[in-house]
């Protein structure tokens, strides 16, 4: 079986950085997908559907690539869905809502290989328990890190770690938008591994 090239179907610099940090070879292209939720669509169903649609959207252009699609939402303890805030005011509202409570991050991930019509898709959950945050703590964090393009209004790989009491889940990379353990699960289901894509540049 010929090893297909990997393609990340995303414009997210955070997802790209997840793969860059592994030192593996992959290509990147932007999928054109309408991310509007359907009426009464549950968060887990939405992220799974969008991950699949993103991985399929580029299949005609890259039929021999193994295409990775991913989508993420944050869901508060009361069921409120939190997408990317886009502004300081929205981010302040989100973190105020999260203060002292548990938030579940649901990340859909899909692998699609058009040439053989093979697909793997799953949803990874990772929970974050927030500290009780004072308004001045929230504002200071937001003004320092400006995480306005991040679901949940924080960057776990940065100062956002100071907002949490504990993390619960098998893969903290899910908080960055690309659960790498789930990705490895999908690759192994195809008889592959992330190690198969490791760059040999600079190897002794």
UniProtKB/TrEMBL annotation:
<dbReference type="InterPro" id="IPR029001">
    <property type="entry name" value="ITPase-like_fam"/>
</dbReference>
<feature type="site" description="Important for substrate specificity">
    <location>
        <position position="72"/>
    </location>
</feature>
<feature type="active site" description="Proton acceptor">
    <location>
        <position position="71"/>
    </location>
</feature>
<dbReference type="GO" id="GO:0005737">
    <property type="term" value="C:cytoplasm"/>
</dbReference>
<comment type="similarity">
    <text>Belongs to the Maf family. YceF subfamily.</text>
</comment>
<dbReference type="Pfam" id="PF02545">
    <property type="entry name" value="Maf"/>
</dbReference>
<feature type="site" description="Important for substrate specificity">
    <location>
        <position position="157"/>
    </location>
</feature>
<dbReference type="GO" id="GO:0047429">
    <property type="term" value="F:nucleoside triphosphate diphosphatase activity"/>
</dbReference>
<protein>
    <recommendedName>
        <fullName>7-methyl-GTP pyrophosphatase</fullName>
        <ecNumber>3.6.1.-</ecNumber>
    </recommendedName>
</protein>
<comment type="function">
    <text>Nucleoside triphosphate pyrophosphatase that hydrolyzes 7-methyl-GTP (m(7)GTP). May have a dual role in cell division arrest and in preventing the incorporation of modified nucleotides into cellular nucleic acids.</text>
</comment>
<keyword id="KW-0546">Nucleotide metabolism</keyword>
<dbReference type="GO" id="GO:0009117">
    <property type="term" value="P:nucleotide metabolic process"/>
</dbReference>
<feature type="site" description="Important for substrate specificity">
    <location>
        <position position="14"/>
    </location>
</feature>
<keyword id="KW-0963">Cytoplasm</keyword>
<keyword id="KW-0378">Hydrolase</keyword>
<dbReference type="InterPro" id="IPR003697">
    <property type="entry name" value="Maf-like"/>
</dbReference>
């Amino acid at each position: 079986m010929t090893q297909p090239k990997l393609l990340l179907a995303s414009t997210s610099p955070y997802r790209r950085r997840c793969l860059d940090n592994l030192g593996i070879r992959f290509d990147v292209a932007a999928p054109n997908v309408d991310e509007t939720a359907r009426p009464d669509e549950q968060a887990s169903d939405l992220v799974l559907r969008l991950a699949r649609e993103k991985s399929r959207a580029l299949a005609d252009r890259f039929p021999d690539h193994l295409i990775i699609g991913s989508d993420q939402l944050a869901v508060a303890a009361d069921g409120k869905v939190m997408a990317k805030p886009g502004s300081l005011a929205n981010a302040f509202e989100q973190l105020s809502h999260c203060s002292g409570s548990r938030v579940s991050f649901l990340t859909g991930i899909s692998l699609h290989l058009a040439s053989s019509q093979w697909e793997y898709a799953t949803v990874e959950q990772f929970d974050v328990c927030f500290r009780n945050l004072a308004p001045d703590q929230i504002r200071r964090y937001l003004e320092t890190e400006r995480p306005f393009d991040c679901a949940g209004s924080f960057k776990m790989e940065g100062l956002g770690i100071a907002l949490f009491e504990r993390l619960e889940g098998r893969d903290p990379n899910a908080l960055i938008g690309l659960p790498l353990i789930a990705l490895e699960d999908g690759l192994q289901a195809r008889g592959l591994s992330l190690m198969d894509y490791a760059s040999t540049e600079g190897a002794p």
